[in-house]
Fold this protein.
Amino acid sequence: MDSGRFVLAVILMIAVVVITNILFPPVPRRSRTAARDTVAQVQQPAAPAQQSQQAAQQPGAQLPQPTAATPADTVLVESELYRFGISTHGAMIVSAEMLPWKSFTRSGPVQLAPRNARGLLAYRVQLGDQQLDLSTVSFTPTARRLRLEPGQPPATLRLTHTSTTGNIEVTYQFTPDNYIAHVTVRVNGAPVPATRLLLDFGPQLAINEARGVEDERALAYVVNSEKEGIHSYALRSVKNERIDEGPLDWVALKNKYFVAAAIIGEKKGSKPFGGVLADAGVEKYTAKISATLPADSNSTFSYRLYLGPQDFDRLNAIGYKFQDVNAYGWRILRPIIRPLGHFLTWAVLSLHEILGLTYGWILVIFGVGIRLLLWPLNNKAMRAQLKNMEMQPRIKELQAKYKAQPDVLQREMLRMYKEAGTNPMGGCLPMLIPFPVLITLFFVFQSTIQFRGVPFLWLPDLSRPDPFYILPVLLGATMLIQQWLSMKTSPPNPQMKFMMWFMPAFMVMIFFNLASGLNLYYAAQNIPGFFQQMQITRERERYQREKGITVPAKK
């Protein structure tokens, strides 16, 4: 995977920085049974746990229920942002088009609903120990088409069904300027009270990217547990039945740039989701995902539905940490990468809004700005290196004197560094600071929808690789020149000479397949880095002349 190769490259870069400066100071999850019992209690408090488990696993366990007698019709709800299709069979979401975003796999805008699926989101209602599949029920809508204009107040679509099974009403409230719909499901007059609503997602979001593998790898369902926090599970990893215990603030199905999510209701006292049951799908990169929602009161269920892009500002405004639906990086690094990723995303988007430039120029300015911001730290590292160089003769004396006493040698060296007011790692630690930023930006560029489809100069799309490989080659060339300048003031070493050639070539191969926006940022950062390396090299040479240090000629 690209992320694995990228991380390997970063590790090698860190190793080069550390080794160079050291050697040449210039010169338990609970059991399935317990989890199942807990989910059963949360999802259906009025029914025994065993009945709840059977109901969750047996969608066919039906009441004597009505069969849709009329052909399904689709109600269209449209604004400048979206076009949603809601079926009169089951009141389920069967289509969700993102009008501002072009699909690269079909004609027209991005479509979230997968082909050959009954819908993007369907409903079942738990009545006692049995279920009513609403897809078998015909509903009558209050309108056949809704068009929401900018500035218009929220519009409501109500779909109703009346039969011996009960009176069922599904209400959607839409606003024209965001992707959130407020949803209410009411069941009255049923033989037994409705205790929970089951929301069936998927089995995936449709693939809309030119490089379909990127969308497929990003396909995942994500939950935000009030107890355990946010967890993301790739659909390709769902091989067997798994349960995520509630209470959950939201449940989401996502791909690289878009997300379909059910979120806890906005009103105070809204019930969280009881849990999620996931199982393997029929095809690769699919899964059967069902979330449960307990009744608020009087057999009423309410939640918020988000069908839209992973736009940071929009997700952040929803609350409940919904902006973390696309978790950056690996779990062990998320405490660092997640807040840093949010900050960098905010910084780039804010620069774009303030300066009014295209994102390509914003990335150039951002890359140069980050390097200039780190300029004092790099200078500090250089001066620490010079200080360590000055101490080399004393270090050699201590090593010779205490050769047979390693404990004493270590103690004496620490005392010497303390008296000199320096740190042996001071020359490399400041130089490692850019690497967390680089790693974070890798994940930011993987999912920042603002870069999707945005051209710049010869680049057709900042979110996709450079088609002519100009930026990766430029990046490798600037790295090679900087390492060559650095080695001018270092003693000759065959291993470091090999790394001087290997690392730029390796980085070129890695960056070939990475987003051109990331290439652009890193290449832009290397431009002031080249001039700073020239400054550092001149200061090292001047220091060596003043101290009478002679660097052996390179062979």
Observations:
- Residues 16-62 have pLDDT under 50 and may be disordered.
- The longest helix spans residues 516-547.
- The longest strand covers residues 242-254.
